[in-house]
Amino acid sequence: MRLVMLAAGGLSLIAGCAPKRPPGRRVLSDDDAGLLGAIADRIIPPDAWPGGRENGVVAFIDRQLDGPYRRFRGEYRRGLDAVTESCLGKYRKRFELLSAEEQNTLLGEMESGSLRDGGWKEGFSKRFFELVRSHAMQAYYGSPRHGGNPDYASYKMMGIDYPQVIGQNRYRP
Amino acid sequence: MKNNHVNAVVVGAGAGGGVVAKELSTAGLSVVLFERGDWVSFEDHDNDELLSQRTTVLGNAFGPDDDRYRRVVAGEDGLTEIVYPSDGAYNNVAACVGSGTVSYGAMAWRFMAEDFRMRSTYGPVQGSTLEDWPVSYDDLEHCYEKAEWEIGVAGDASLNPFAAPRKKPYPMPPFSYNREATMLESAMKRMGLHPFPIPMLRNSVPYSGRPACVRRRTCCGFACPVNAKCGTHNTVIPAALSTGNCELRTQCVVGGLIIDASGRITGVEYFDREDTKQEQTADVIVLAASATETPRLLLNSTSRHFPSGVGNRHDWVGRNLQGHAYTGAFGLFEEDIFDDVGPGATLAISDFSHHNPGIVGGGILANEFTRLPYLFSNIRPPGSRMWGEEHKEFQRKYFRRNVQVVGPVQEMPFFDSRVQVDPSVRDSWGLPVVRLSGHRHPRDAEGCEFLSGKAEAILKEAGAFQTWRHLGGSGLSGGQHQAGTCRMGDDPLSSVTDRFGRVHDTPNVFVSDASLHVTNGGFNPALTIMALGYWVGEHIAGEWHKGNHFR
What we know:
The complex is a heterodimer. Chain A is an all-alpha fold. Chain A has 6 helices and no strands. Chain A has helices at 30-43, 57-64, 73-91, 100-112, 124-141, 153-158. The N and C termini of chain A lie far apart (50 Å).
């Protein structure tokens, strides 16, 4: 496992690598963002409405890792590395390149806690899955001011008008 | 610079402290009202679900902050964990002017006569410190009335046949039902139940110079953008300040009581907004800092006269921590029920508050406040996958087609459910923090089982094609309805204060918050905390004018 370097501010989480981040991203490298986006698209898959990746899950998590979720940086580093490690071990491919079905299988194993090797010791896979799942839901269904859910896309999907105009809107199934 | 001596210090500008400050300052006493937080308004956080009083994942919109505050939770296994205000286990109460009354759902319940006489009504409960209050509903009736008229309540008590008798109606007409409440009303009536509009500390018509409610979905958990919600921050606290007798000191953290060489409490020590330690002396000290912070203040105030903390000679300070197990059921419907008329909760029944076979107490049932999108993402029938296509489909299909009926169950006080101060962990001012331990009394589960069954039956009668229940859990209770930790009583051996909130063993220290509650009713407690504020405040002011300066 790679060494974890915890640092405040704009330093990359990946020790030993030059930070490869587009301007505007604060914590996650391009690789981290690609992997997290792929996970986000399984947690909230794209259909007629945007998936987790398109609806700002990565941007939200990146921003919060530089804010109130700074305390979860270590978990993200360990968890993202463990996902990659598990995929390379099992499929010889990174998570991002797996089929949706394979990705769902792996996430299901994380959720149930059946992964125990490498970085997943001590029931970490379950904990990490729930962390990412809840953060993805917060991003997708929360206020756009935290980096996710641009233009309240999820509100539109659910038929909740925003801003709220009481009594003025009707939704038909 | 030394602060001028005042007649009274009130610690905590929430539901209890705000009322006491107003009662004392209008009676001519000079008052300093301390608040560790500051003024907050809608503009600070807008409609942000992730930073609301209901969902604190990104922090507490109404304080306190995670940087300076912490608590310790001790588990059954003896292991301890440090928790922060945005963690549920912290059992937070808002830290701002008005405290929870800024962001609450604003249900304005009077307790029933039985709620003050639980032991007489139901007999002793094994393993519980269930007891009668030293005051009755009749004693407090006029205080409830003052709270309803001075702070403002909308409702129609004539529609609730179980309501305790009252002398005066509510000052404002009730709120109309939203669509789900209209549907539930018919179902409840078919079942022979007695639905009525929930009394609310919220303007249904313009009142006290503030406008009527605009019925937003972001009400419970949020500040009101039009100032229609009635809290102490926009009623009694401004009234106190306008007397010229009351000074509000915000961002001031009171750390303990000052005890002189003779054992008399002469004031409080506090840290001002620059974190400078200061003293404020007073003749009377009123603690209204919440059922976790009030006992902490007493326990952190020791001297040779009070070796285990002020008022704690018989080890009752911090005991009997209780809140409410929330229990009820969800139902899914074939068609849209959600009409986006806030705050969602509009109708209740009190049929199951008391005299239920085999149950001690009970609770109201009401339709629930609007579940916003993130909160709703955690609501699924048991066994559902909490992610993926199905989860997303449920989110858009059932947000407008789900109804929740829910209520607070009266809890049996439990001596070992308690607030202590931690021997080693300190907050950023160096003060020992709250240490929470204990669990609910096993009989609470019976109440949850009973009430959630009733909720489920109502949803089925209303036409839900699928229903599921949620029970209250068995762990430590407290939360925003926290109560009981400085119980009032006639016997100093088994209580912390007398019937007027005066701490035994002291002539001049009073408590005026939910810490006083002997039992916590099957109702949201805000109006009762306010009523006790009038009860305590009226007593202090009355005595003061008789020449009793509590020496």
